[in-house]
Every structure is written in structure tokens, then in C-alpha cells.
Amino acid sequence: MDAVQVVAEPRRREILRLVWDEERSAGEIADRFDVTFGAVSQHLRVLRDAGLVTLRQDGKKRFYRADREALGPLAAYLQSMWADRLDTLAELSEAAERAERGEGTDT
């Protein structure tokens, strides 16, 4: 499976986002999802087999981190996608605050 196919799956993109800037344990990653640990583990395996995350084992714990170099041009695309989502969230939050204060959106 190529990198584009791997990151096409929404949960795997979310996993990449979680491990983009910092290493996280498999349990910490799984806690962020509403599916079983086994399901998250399978997604982590796909990401690892594609070379998109690195794995470090410390005793029984497994720690994952995104391998940005392996993502190549997809890394910039993912970062811009996440930034766009954050911008949209900020805009929605600001609109909700204005609505609570009774301010209109007309200028």
C-alpha cells in the first residue's frame, strides 16, 4: 500500500496528527479514539509497515512518532490540511463568542 492510500483513511491521518510533533505511546493514542485498542493497533501497524511512523519500544510500551521524511510531499499537504482545520475551528469559535455577546456578523 502506498503512502497516499495509507493516509486516505481518516483514523490514520488523525494518528499521524497526534504523533506529528511528539512521540506517544500506543495506549495514549488509543485513548483518543472511540474504537478498540486492537483497531488502533492495526492502524499503527499499517502506518509502521508503510514507513510513515517510527516505533521505539521501552519494555512493554511502544512509542510512535511520525516520520516526516518518509511522507515526502505528503508531509506539507497534511500540515496545511491540519492548519486549515484549526483556522476553521478558530473562526467558528470567534463567531460563537460574537453570537453570545449579541454582536451581529454584519460590519
Automatic annotation (TrEMBL):
UniProt keyword list: DNA-binding, Transcription, Transcription regulation
Keyword Transcription: yes
One Gene Ontology term of the molecular function aspect: DNA-binding transcription factor activity
Record-linked InterPro entries: ArsR-like_HTH, HTH_ArsR_DNA-bd_dom, HTH_MetalResp_TranReg, WH-like_DNA-bd_sf, WH_DNA-bd_sf
Residues annotated as domain HTH arsR-type: 1-93
Domain of life per record: Bacteria
Coiled coil ranges: none
Pfam families: HTH_5
Keyword Transcription: yes
UniProt protein name: Metalloregulator ArsR/SmtB family transcription factor
Species annotation: Streptomyces guryensis
